[in-house]
Amino acid sequence: MTNIKEIAKRAGVSVTTVSRVLNQHPYVAADKRERVEAIIHELDYIPNRSAMNLARGKTNTVGVILPYTDHPWFDKITSGILEAAFREKYSVTLLPTGYDPKRELKHLEMLKTKQVDGIIITSRANPFQSLLEVAEVEQLVFCEETEQPELSCAYINRFQAFQDGFRFIQNKGYQNVAFTTGRTDRISPSTQNKIAAFEEVFATKANRANMLNNCYDVSDGEAAAEYFLEKAPVKPDAIYATGDEVAAGIFAYARKNGLRVPEDLAILGQENLPVSEVLEISTLDHHLKRLGTAAFSIFHSDKVQKQKIHHELVKRKSL
């Protein structure tokens, strides 16, 4: 099997020179570089990238921890990361967890074996402290606000965003407002902040009458609409959905059952997906692609940073 010693011998250069050519080191004489590259091509040599990465201590690869690879929220964040990484000639390794804490910690071990230079965590299953017991703070960037000064993050003020969404509904004159959320566990910032925003704006406790958890897609939206409109103690006049796909499901159920939108039921979605534009559903855009771009830029800067991404209400005909 061809190795760099053989390439060096054939090219009449040192092993160090071959190594520099393979690692694209700038300080190699042009004639030596040409000879080495010619021999590499002639022998069809494919370098062992893992060994090279260990030798130089850098992989030009960033890992991205995300719960799902088929969810619009994380798809938008990942899209921003990928575009920014491509510009800087970085590879991206997606590390799905399904919100399994053990799998998440296992992914972090890639930092110890130098398979990636750092990891961007779009959403976590573990408390911060558990993550920091496995990884160094400078190796991580979070896509949520972190109070610890040593932790880098690109973030949305989720409480303020949800508050603006609920106030928009309230200012339109709706009072019997229901909403859907995603995860129910105590670690989910989105769920915590949406509940807190609802309770502050409407000065009432969120409960099964006005809240439904684990809503992610169109079918969940239809099920949520059926629950709120047919089974809940108080029939809502407006629903703030977890995302635009959920909002589309609520919209579909309302239309199938002869309800007018927004006269009989107002709907607010989230993330400004194409389906919300097609159905003319008002939505709150968190600008998640910008969030992903900012997260990668922070990682690439090698500096502790906290960058806030501003949200935007997109007003259409459903509210």
Automatic annotation (TrEMBL):
HTH lacI-type domain mapped to chain residues: 2-56
GO terms assigned for molecular function: DNA-binding transcription factor activity; transcription cis-regulatory region binding
InterPro entries associated with the record: HTH_LacI (IPR000843), Lambda_DNA-bd_dom_sf (IPR010982), Peripla_BP/Lac1_sug-bd_dom (IPR001761), Peripla_BP_I (IPR028082)
Alphabetical list of PROSITE patterns matching this protein: HTH_LACI_1, HTH_LACI_2
Keyword Cell cycle: no
Keywords: DNA-binding, Transcription, Transcription regulation
Name this polypeptide is given: LacI family transcriptional regulator
Organism: Listeria aquatica FSL S10-1188
